[in-house]
Design brief:
81 residues; alpha+beta; two-stranded antiparallel sheet; two-stranded antiparallel ribbon; 3 helices; 4 strands
């Protein structure tokens, strides 16, 4: 099936191909033996007991997104970076 690359380096894939990937949003793209290969990838959020503990502590301390710039600046001053 014919595909066209736009001036912004975007490819339009035929409906017949995409019909097989209806639930996919992300693909791994690579060059392999003179061919472009697209492989569906499932993106899962990173979760671990350590990360959950950090998120709980941040919530308990009441640290919000607005506080982060000040915290980072303070850490850089303290550690000289």
């Amino acid at each position: 099936m014919l595909c066209k690359m736009t001036s912004k380096n975007q490819l339009t894939l035929p409906k017949e191909v995409l019909r097989h990937c209806q639930d996919q949003s992300y693909f791994d793209a690579r060059w392999e033996s003179g061919r472009i290969v697209l492989e569906p990838v499932v993106i899962r959020p990173l979760e671990s007991p350590q990360l959950a503990a950090i998120r709980d502590k941040v919530d308990r301390l009441g640290i919000g997104e607005a506080d982060l710039a000040g915290i980072v600046a303070e850490a850089r001053r303290a550690y000289g970076s």
